[in-house]
Amino acid sequence: MFFQPKAALLCCLLFWTCQDRPSPATSSEPKLEIEPKAHSIIERSIATHGGLERWQSIKSISYTKAFALLDSTGQVESDVFQNHHYQYGNQPNIAISWQQDGVTHRLEQKGDHCAKSIDGSVDVSVSSSAAQNSIYTSTYVHGIPYKLLDPGPRITYEGVEEIWTGELCDVLKVVYDPAQYDNLTTADIWWYYFSQEDGRVRAGKVKHLDHISGIRNISYREADGFLFNHERESHRLDSSGKALYLRASYVYDDYQVDVP
Fold first, then answer.
1. Which residue from 65, 140, 186, 235 could staple onto 243, CB 3.0 to 4.6 Å apart?
2. Is 126 a domain residue?
3. Domain count, the chain
């Protein structure tokens, strides 16, 4: 089993998907809807991962990301090595670049403008919204657990569950409602698993429209007082939570953080 539920301890599991800064469709401002126990778990996790005040003071951060996608037989479908650089402040800039088939691909966001280029020329086959979604996915994953304090989601405490290592984790369910906020494009549901020992994010589970994925945080890197992901795995799951096969493997490394 990918996760090992303990019925006496477990109420449920957990979910997520949203846009970076939700704008409301039905109210003037996005709301922060977090149960008190869930809020305390998030705050403890943030302290373990580096602290909210220091996170918000970061001027820039860069890292490498290597990942492989595999099919159900274990054959590699694609294998990519990326460089990520995020510049914050008055002139934010997000850039993700990689080499493929002898050419340089680049995703970039400057202000509200997002685009993908190939060898310096705009890739017209990729829309601005598609480029933005790709950038958002990377920055959101990188920003957990801090992003869980952004207004918009409904977060509830779901109980305790045993993960693949035998560790007991507190489980939070995180729901972003696209019917409520107009830039939330999907209704995926995430569950996040937090170590009871120190609060670090150990795993996640997401239910898409057509499949369920389980994410394992295998190892971590420390850089400038922050705790970041190092090795991660994504498994395709069946409806009971059993891992069917390894869908993707990730290695994040070479973190460089500019923080006061």
1. 235
2. no
3. 1
Lowest mean pLDDT among 150-154, 155-159, 234-238, 253-257: 150-154
pLDDT score of 184: 54
Q: 175: closest CA among 160, 164, 191?
A: 191
Tokens 């340089």, located at residue: 104
Q: What's the CA gap between 87 and 67, in Å, rounded?
A: 23
Per-residue pLDDT tens digits for 94-148 = 999 999 999 999 999 998 899 999 999 999 999 998 998 889 888 989 999 999 9
Whole-angstrom distance, CA of residue 49 vs CA of residue 246: 27
Rounded distance between C-alpha atoms, residue 31 and residue 175, angstroms: 12
Pairing status of strand 231-237 against strand 243-258: antiparallel
Residue 7 has what pLDDT? 32
CATH number for position 51: 2.50.20
Return the structure tokens found at 58: 């970061």
Tokens of 2: 């990918």
Is residue 17 assigned to a domain?
yes
Residue 124, in any domain of the structure:
no
Output the 3-class SS for 192-244. EEEECCCCCEEEEEEECCCCEEEEEECCEEEECCEEEECEEEEEEECCCCCEE
| pTM (global) more than 0.70 | yes
Q: 3-state SS of the chain: helix, strand, coil percent to 5?
A: 15, 45, 40
